Amino acid sequence: MKPSFPRSARIVRTTALLAAAVVVLAPAAPATATGAGAPGAPAPGAPLRVATFNIHAGAGQDGILDLDRTAQAVRDLDADVVGLQEVDVHWGARSDFVDEARALAEKLGMRVFFAPVYDLDPAAGGGERRQYGVAVLSRYPVLGAENHEITRLSTQTSDPVPAPAPGFAEVTVDVKGAHVHVYSTHLDHRADPSVREAQVADMLEVLAADRGPKILVGDFNAGATAPELAPLWQKLRDADPAGGGTYPAADPAKRIDLVTVSRDITVTGAEAVPTEASDHRPVVTDLRIPLRGR
Description:
This protein is of the alpha+beta class. About 15% of the residues lie in helices and about 35% in strands.
C-alpha cells in the first residue's frame, strides 16, 4: 500500500529495457480459464486467466520474508499473466538483495518484465543497482515491453513536487494470435487524490496509443468508486465490481487491488483470494480475449 524508500534519480523509459529485463524461460502450458461461477457455455474468444498481486516485497502478514511462499501464492492462482507490485530487485536487506522478479519467474517457469520505479546506485562498490517497482509475469510469449513514465510524488522530501517518473509497466502478450496489452501499475498512496488523478490521466494517454485488447491491473490505492478513478471507466471496465476487499489481507476493509479490461474483453469469473503471503489479497479473473485483436 505505502512504499517507504529512498528518493530515486529519474530514469528514462527505453525500449532497450526489453532485451535486458524480459527473461524468457521454459514456459508452462497456458492454463485453461474455467470461469468459476460463469453460467452456460464459454464466451467466444481465447481464454486468459489474469491476476494482480501486491507482493509486499516478499514479506507475508507475519512480516517474514519468504519468496517461496510468495511463489506458491502466485502458483495457486493458476494465472497465465500476473501483474505484480512492490517488487524488489537487489533492493536491500529486507529482501536479502535478491532479484525478486527473476527469482519468481524461475520458480514459476514464467517470463517476466520488471519496470523499476526507483533505480539507485549499489549499496556497496561492485554490487548490483538497487531497484524497486512493478512487474508482469507471463506464460504466453511477450512480444514487447515498455516502462512508461507517469506523474509521481517523492515520499522522501518535505516539499515534494509532482513530476514524471517510470514504473508503469506494459507488455504485449501473444495469446493464440491475439496481441493483448497488459499493464501493471501502483498508484500514489496519499489521502490527497490529486496525484492519482494525474496518474490516471497519464495511464489513459498510454493506453490510447495502443490498439487491441487491453488489461490494466494493479494497486490503485483507491476504491473503484473514487472520483479520481472515474475517467478510467470511460474506457475500461472493472472486472470484479462486486468483489471482496483486498487490503489489509487479514481482514480486508478496502478493495484497492483491481483488474480492469477494455470493453472488447469478456469477464467470465473473478475472485479476491485470501493469502498469508502478503498484506494484500491477489485478485484473479477469467477472461475471454477476442481473437481478432492485434
